[in-house]
Amino acid sequence: MGSGAPRRLPETAAVLAVRRAVREWIAAYAPAGRAVAVALSGGADSLALTAAAVVEAGEVDALVVDHQLQDGSKAVAADAAATALALGCRSARVLAVRVDGDGGMEAAARRARYAALDEARAGLPVLLGHTLDDQAETVLLGLARGSGGRSIQGMAAWAEPWGRPLLAVRRAQTRRLCLDLALTPHEDPHNASPEFTRVRLRTEALPLLEDVLGGGVAAALARTAEQLREDGAVLDTLAGELLHTASDGRTLSIETLATAPAALRRRAIRSWLLEGGAKALTGKHLHAVDQLITDWRGQGGVAVGGGEPGSRLVAEREHGRLALRRERQARRR
What is the pLDDT of residues 222-234, one digit of tens each? Predict the structure, then answer.
């Protein structure tokens, strides 16, 4: 599909705020003149992002994911693609996906969406319309999981190939931009359904916190995430050095790990497990593996998520070193 010239945008407060955020992101993370892709749902956030990106980035390809979970989703996706072209996108593609798998509909839809975007992006960075409000919700969800500082660092502005230029922009500003441009966002009914935890955070928990604490909660949570991300980057670097010192290429020295600070040791263990094929690590996994080092009482190995079908990964202590092995699982009859 072809594109028209970029639409001239009025210089309202909301338009300027969103454009500034996109411009700063491009200056920080995207090579000058490079095209970008935008994940466009048709909602206010992604519409605002698309409108600003067309002006600030120049060449923009819109990728519209149709989850096919609601009646009329095909028409919604087609309308979003048409709007992208009207705004001046170079191209607009609708990506129909099938949502299934473990972990509930929300998690399955997310996996399907990211997989489709990754396959269709043609090597381009993909801009996502997550706002400051989304960041605050993510931090609260991380606090509820209780998995440590990493879980409340929130979303990164750049985690290749995903870019999030709007993390300092409020959701109200993206909606205002749409009004200023006479754009009609699609209102996804799932975004108002209380069966989803994130919706209840958005409509019940955060408004209550804002009321009880006198406002500014969402912005404070987003600032906390940014500060923790900066701290986490330093700790990850130091943990990488510890991992290099402790490793012989396959196993880790118990003595080296045991004498390291807990924050670095657990980060090093996490990286080692992930490199070995572990998946969906939890705080419980890391604590149990850490006990093999710091609270050794002759306990057996710790099974961690991952491994090939019919096998599992087990971390165990052997001859003063921490090893990771694949253990075959007996077939169920």
Answer: 999 999 999 999 9
